[in-house]
Please model this.
Amino acid sequence: MSAAGGPRVRRLFSRAANAGDLRTVIFQGIGAVLLAAGSAVASGVLTVADLIIIPVSALANAGGAFVEATFGGAAQIINFGAIATALSIGPGGMFNLGPLTFALGIGSVLLALYLVVAYLSEDPTGNFIPGIPFDIPTPGFAGPEEDDEDG
Amino acid sequence: MVEPGEYVDGVTIRWGRVATTLFGATILAYFRGAIATFLSLVDIPLGLLGGLGEFLGSFVAVVTGIWPALIRGGWTGAAGFVLEAGIAGYAVAIGLVLVTFYVATVVIRSATN
Model:
């Protein structure tokens, strides 16, 4: 609201007085209108861009969070497992075997390594669970069929 | 700031300068009002579009944010089990990770076939 004689009105009078003549005042007004039109167009462009940028950036953030949760969580749980193993064979641990503790530690690491190697060396299979002689039906999922070795 | 002294020359009133200031201020008020009205009208569709963008961003964040939250919850639940596994914790953790990624691979492969 512009109160009578308020600061906004006083600014108008100051600008009119500083302009010197009416022609300058009118040109200033026209310039302000053009500036307003330009700023409206620029705001429109930025708003339309935001319409794309905001959802896409949200999707990108969610993608990053997904990767972080999947692989970061896996790394964290492996770290927890290593800590649990180290604590159990450490001083005062349940599986501290004195002089043989070091060998036990090596054994636990080798066991983990064996699991990884066994996983990587497993042949591709269409069965839901590999290593068992029968397939578990998974309705709704059409996985790859086993090769027909007899044919 | 408008100073009254600027409009007086000795004992004579500078009517031209007074008229310029008065009419100029009026004209500027018209321009200012027109600009404010125009910008307010433009703000209506821009506000709607901006709100739509914010809504889409929030919608995408909520829908896609559930997955990492579930995965984190799953890992957190498994962490307690791993910590209680004693000496087998390391192997259990790696086994859990391998089984998880295997199941994820099978499900993704089956779903994309």
Notes: Residues 82 and 92 of chain B are 6 Å apart (CA to CA).
